[in-house]
Amino acid sequence: MVLADLGRRINAAMADLTRSNVVDEKALDSMLKEICMALLESDVNVKLVSTLRANIKKKINLNDQAPGVNKRRLVQKTVFDELCALVDCQPENGDAPAFKAKKGRSNVIMFVGLQGAGKTTSCTKLALWYQRRGFKVGLVCADTFRAGAFDQLKQNATKAKVPYYGSYTETDPVAVAAAGVARFKSEKFDIIIVDTSGRHRQEQELFAEMVQISQAVKPDQTIMVLDASIGQAAESQSKAFKESSDFGAIILTKMDGHAKGGGAISAVAATRTPIVFVGTGEHIHDLEPFTPTQFISKLLGMGDIKGLVDHVKHMNLDQKETMKHIEQGIFTIRDLRDQMSNIMKMGPLSKMAGMIPGMSQLMGEVGEEESGKRLKRMMYIMDSMTEKELDSDGKVFVSEPTRLTRVAKGSGTTVREVEEVLSQQRTMARMVKQVGGKKPPRPKMKRLRA
Question: DSSP letter at 64?
Fold first, then answer.
């Protein structure tokens, strides 16, 4: 993930402070120096870093703290709050309120951004995100400049099962955008997403064209798609777009890469525009709503349980049978296989690990590739079992050890690996037994007569 190295370095600096015997000005300055260096090396603007340092020093002020105050806890909380403030842009008094789509009326959303930032893919991701929440969504391709732009949107929209509009013959993007929006409005679509051509701040003609499209479709929200990997250039580019299109939200893309990503944070602060979504992968489902506290929690390895719950909820995974077993205090090998299968459906392991407290550090030690291989081998082992073995609690392998050899040969693994899967199932079964299962009623004591 972008900024993963930054998160590790900030964590290490805070851990050094926690381990020190005395929390004084010297220890605090040493920690702040490490954090500021990490932010600067991640392409965060020097003015923002300087402000962050000054704010932390001002809020903590160790000399004025009461004797009973836990200074370590105070420092950790202040650093967390200031990092959240760095990526959080609350609308000011003069700003328009945050956009919220409403059903029963047409909401037009226009996308702008540099070429290659991932606008077309982000359009499809957002369309699918709204569609899953019950909105009637349509996509309009107003990018007549790039060869193959309509084909790409058409392919993405077909895959996501979202209606689309575009033209191979019309070369005027303003006419295509106006016609597409008019058509979807007449068909009572709730969300109409308009994809425009990628442009650069030096290309004045394309900027003028963007303004014309905006005037023609009158968008309720304009979103800038910002590549998290372009570094310090993000700030100047986003300022130029802000002056021309006055976008009201940002979608960060390519957050699953290994770029520094600090430039994107600088762009958010420079334009005072909130991030609404984060693209976390190439697949059409890889889009997450952005919440500053959850983002910083994941960055520092503290997890994002709320994000994980929401992700599972919208995956529509079939878990009825497993949940029924858990309520009864039962957990079979089949239940383990179903859970493993669901984890693999939920996306990259690194993405899931970032949402579970402590798991991101573990993933860093083993590596995503190795973890993925282990998971697949476990699936091969369970797929090589008979129906009777899958529906058992694993004791059948103890009474008949030859089954272990057969399953190992059938799955191309070793007997040891089969035993590890069975050990995993036993561990899960013990936990389920503690959580679920109906406890027998307590016997009533007979009252003794005096």
Answer: G
